[in-house]
Design goal:
Structural class: mainly alpha
Order of helices and strands: HHHHHHHHH
Helix content: over 70%
Low-confidence stretches: none
Distance between the termini: 48 Å
Number of domains: 2
């Protein structure tokens, strides 16, 4: 039950983001939108920042959890990008706030986690040691992170299937054995 209430609070917070900047949302606004008491909010979260932290982790970790279930890297990328796109407003507002550094690290780490899952199965054996593999994964994750951040700010609809195919062909496949 507690998990459902936390998700309900997070969804209400996301609704408020449509009309308010992240740092302008108050607990009062949130409890009114969510139809809960202040006590209920504070039972689950110490403050708005704790809610945001939890929400960001839910969204990024949820992307990874679902992507790890994919049959291949391209499918994992479609799942991951779809989840990011579904939470575009929340993530964009977080990136536009004082949380941008924190958000970038969380996003990069989640990309590293899901790409490592597949790279560990198929990594190119031409690399001399694990340090080179780790560098390749981190370098890729940093580039993909930047690309996703720019995608969050794009006003046009993103064709996720085409984007995932391009990322798979031009980035991910280059690191796997042939």
């Amino acid at each position: 039950m507690a998990g459902k209430t936390k998700l309900q609070i997070l969804k209400s917070f996301s609704v408020l983001l449509a009309d308010h900047e992240l740092d302008k949302i108050t607990v009062t606004m949130l409890v009114e939108e969510c139809h809960i008491s202040r006590q209920t909010f504070y039972y689950h979260f110490a403050d708005i920042q704790a809610l945001i932290d939890w929400g960001v982790q839910q969204y990024t970790h949820g992307c990874v959890t679902d992507a790890k279930k994919a049959a291949n890297m391209e499918e994992a990328t479609i799942i991951y990008l779809t989840k990011i796109d579904e939470n575009r407003l929340f993530l964009r507002k977080c990136f536009s706030s004082s949380l941008s550094g924190y958000m970038t690290a969380l996003l990069r780490n989640s990309i590293m986690e899901y790409t490592s899952e597949f790279y560990s199965q198929f990594i190119n054996f031409g690399y001399q040691d694990n340090n080179e593999v780790d560098f390749a994964i981190e370098f890729t994750a940093n580039g993909v992170t930047g690309f996703i951040i720019s995608m969050l700010y794009t006003k046009t609809e993103t064709d996720i299937t085409t984007l995932a195919a391009k990322m798979n062909n031009y980035i991910f496949k280059r690191l796997v054995k042939r």
